[in-house]
Write a structure and sequence with these properties.
The chain is mainly alpha-helical. It has helices at residues 2-20, 23-60, 63-78, 87-100, 104-122, 129-140, 147-155, 165-196. The longest helix has 38 residues, at 23-60. It comes from Terribacillus saccharophilus.
Length: 197
């Protein structure tokens, strides 16, 4: 559906430019945007490589294992349907840790694997309680360091690119808590409806 919306917007923009006689400006904007996108992608790659390296160092030093050990009791309470030693729990913790350090691209494969493992565990074609909770938490994305935003701000010569870190952390904590509360609220509503049926 989103692809159709983008296609309609692009075709509409081109038709509008042809009617108004501004096709030259549209062509210039397309090529400039493409050039900016390549430059931005390369600058983001360098930042991602740096933070992935820092994460590897933290992993080798045992910091990530410590963080996982610290978070495991809390995560086990969020996902009571998943046995503590199930592979899905490891993928969930890895995904949340990567998101915590702002490494969304590194977190995605872990999130997909976690969903696959939870699907195997539930054995149902419908999304399980744990899958819904994981999706809600992942959407809220608790983030300590917003690496992608910092990279974009640095690329465009922000005077103080790191000034957003505290605001981002606060906003992500609020969205994380909100996601958990809303998930639990809807779970309770659904459970009560099933009881009365």
């Amino acid at each position: 559906m989103v692809n159709y919306i983008w296609a309609i917007m692009a075709i509409g923009g081109i038709i509008y430019a042809m009617i108004n006689g501004t096709m030259d400006e549209v062509n210039k904007a397309i090529f400039k945007s493409a050039d900016d996108a390549v430059v931005l992608a390369i600058s983001l790659i360098s930042v991602m490589v740096f933070w992935l390296g820092i994460t590897k160092i933290a992993e080798a030093a045992g910091l990530l294992k410590g963080l996982v050990r610290l978070a495991k009791p809390f995560i086990a309470r969020l996902f009571p349907d998943i046995p503590k030693d199930h592979p899905a729990m490891g993928y969930i913790l890895s995904n949340l840790t990567a998101n915590f350090f702002g490494l969304g691209n590194a977190a995605t494969p872990m999130g997909i694997k976690a969903m696959e493992e939870m699907k195997k565990l539930s054995g149902s074609p419908k999304a399980s309680r744990s899958m819904i909770t994981f999706l809600a938490i992942n959407t809220s994305s608790l983030t300590l360091i917003p690496t992608t935003v910092l990279a974009v701000r640095m690329k465009y010569d922000s005077h103080s690119p790191t000034e957003i870190v505290s605001a981002t952390l606060l906003a992500s904590i609020i969205s994380f808590i909100g996601a958990i509360l809303i998930d639990r609220l809807f779970y309770e509503i659904r459970r009560r409806k099933e009881r009365h049926v």
